[in-house]
Amino acid sequence: MLSSLLVANRGEIARRVIRTANRLGIRTIAVHSEADADLPFVREATEAVPIGAANQAQSYRNAEAVLAAAKATGAEAIHPGYGFLSENAAFAETVLDNGLIWVGPGPAAIAAMGDKINARNLMAAAGVPVAPGTHDPAASAEAALAAAREIGFPVMVKAAAGGGGMGMAVADDADRLRTEYDKVRAFAERMFGDGSVLIERYFPRVRHIEVQILGLADGRIVALGERECSVQRRNQKLLEESPSPALSPEQRRDLLAAAVRAGEAVAYRNAGTVECLFDPAAGQFFFLEMNTRLQVEHPVTEAVFGIDLVEQQLRVASGLAPTFDPEALAVTGHAIEVRVNAEDPKRFLPGPGAIATWTEPAGDGVRVDAGYTAGNIVTPHYDSLMAKLIVHGPDRAAAIARLRTAVQDFAVAGPKVNLPFFAELLDNPEFLSGDYDTGIVGRMR
């Protein structure tokens, strides 16, 4: 096992990684911006290094500052968490070139999956189903229109280099397509430095289901079940659960097998997620993208399999076997996670501020991964995620009942908070039935 680890992230995921590394006796190094100096992850690490101003480009996205901190502290490895530099193939390459261990997949796999068009083509060649769409970037609005007419409206206009639900728009006719194409292209150039645009069929009623994979040190790819991620706002997830209530045993078997093929196609190592769209009417799933990092929602997989995914990441990076038997995996019960964000529960607009009250729920099957506590300030510089509330129960109904109580017991005052939305969702007949899709939040508003 490696001896020291720098966590190149912040908030709840930095705290989450540090917690496991501390348990394993690994010396932990936190890096932080000026705005985050008082957050829990900073004091819970063995050492902490300030790396810049609140602006992401000057701190958490500053590769030179992160590497300088690693060298100054004698860190053996870097864990990128999610977001920021986690899916930056050039940064991963630089980490390795500097003689450090990268806790994640190799740069080649990150680069291969970082472009949605390239990823689609690779997956199709590997026998993974993909939705009808373009095999090359649409170089102009007219090219996009020609592709849309061949695919059939409505279509999704997507930034090929995008991620996290950003750089996406739906077009249901030619005029809307021209408008959205220009918007997405400009957004992609500004945010990702790559204006390539993908045109793909849009499914009006679809579910978002993903598979957690783990590429082991010996080269095997293991599928650790699926997660249902269809409760979303602005194409970004709010609630995730495992197992998905949508899949039959046969559909689950086929989905997991396809995810393994996806990992094998790029010789994947470490933790990753194969995201798919599932058409419940046709009973078909299609590859969406692969996230080459640990996901925000990884705790629901940990709950139903009883394993620590961060520990498995560290073991793979150290060349060690997993702590579980890959041939004897079994799901136990049902888990649900909700993202507790500093945003209003109606329009989901950010509402940062100083935290006056922070009381976390507790009890059997209840877990909170929090990045903040009372007295901290949620600033507007970063994502609005404050904490993740995870529950586990013997079945879905029990998990929902446990979550309903935990949401009521989670007290936050100061910043705006979306907990009232979850209280509403957990009484929604469509959600309770399990027969819901990515449009459920829109139908509630």
From TrEMBL:
Enzyme Commission numbers on file: 6.3.4.14
Enzyme class per UniProt: ligase
Signal peptide start and end residues: none
Xref: PROSITE patterns: ATP_GRASP, BC, CPSASE_1, CPSASE_2
InterPro entries referenced in this protein's UniProt entry, alphabetically: ATP-grasp, BC-like_N, Biotin_carboxylase_complex, Biotin_carboxylation_dom, Biotin_COase_C, CPAse_ATP-bd, PreATP-grasp_dom_sf, Rudment_hybrid_motif
Keywords: ATP-binding, Biotin, Ligase, Nucleotide-binding
Annotated ranges, domain Biotin carboxylation: 1-445
SUPFAM superfamilies per record: Glutathione synthetase ATP-binding domain-like, PreATP-grasp domain, Rudiment single hybrid motif
Matches recorded under SMART domains: Biotin_carb_C
Keyword ATP-binding: yes
Transferase keyword on record: no
GO molecular function: ATP binding; biotin carboxylase activity; metal ion binding
Protein name (record): biotin carboxylase
Source organism of the structure: Dactylosporangium matsuzakiense
